[in-house]
Specification:
Elements (H helix, E strand, L loop, with lengths): L10 E5 L5 H18 L6 H10 L1 E7 L2 E11 L2 E9 L8 H15 L4 E7 L4 H7 L3 E2 L10 E7 L1
Parallel strand pairs: 4-5
Antiparallel strand pairs: 1-2, 2-3, 3-4, 5-7, 6-7
Keywords: Acyltransferase, Transferase
Protein name: N-acetyltransferase
InterPro entries: Acyl_CoA_acyltransferase, Bact_Acetyltransf, GNAT_dom
Length: 154
């Protein structure tokens, strides 16, 4: 959790604009390509587009440059984190923590009780999610195979 005395990070989130779609899709596709190949999945640009239209979409910037994407949907009493994508040169610098903490704060401000996300079992980001209080949840279809469903109380 961030305290007001923590040093500010060089990141800012802003609402995505229509012209950010290409950047977001390319970053997501490139970041996920290895997982899709290893788990015998096929990237579907049409499904990403539909999901983009149904999501709240945010662009992560550092020094005025687009370096990441966060996509959210509100489902019942839960804020579902659809994507946290960070450009390779900005990983390991607190960008993921910044986006996850921002999502947690927004869920709390909206009066929601839970955050949820899905992650490939071989994605190193799963360790960050565990450190931040996310836990693999009960029997769901996403527990089968390569993807785990995780939740965190708000």
């Amino acid at each position: 959790m961030f305290a007001p005395t923590d040093a500010p990070l060089p990141f800012a989130l802003r609402d995505a604009a229509p012209e950010d779609f290409e950047f977001a899709e390319a970053l997501t596709r490139n970041n996920m390509n290895g997982y899709y190949e290893r788990h015998h999945l096929v990237w579907r640009a049409d499904l990403f587009f539909v999901s983009w239209r149904e999501s709240e979409n945010y662009i992560l910037e550092a020094d005025g440059q687009r370096v990441g994407v966060m996509r959210l949907t509100e489902e019942g009493n839960s804020l579902h984190i659809r994507d946290v994508q960070i450009a390779a040169g900005y990983r390991g610098q607190g960008a993921g923590t910044y986006m996850l903490e921002t999502a947690h704060r927004w869920a709390r401000e909206r009066g929601l009780s839970e955050l949820q996300l899905r992650v490939f079992v071989d994605n190193p980001a799963a360790r960050l999610y565990l450190r931040m209080g996310y836990r693999v949840t009960g029997p769901r279809i996403t527990q089968i195979g390569a993807i785990r469903h995780m939740t965190r109380r708000v």
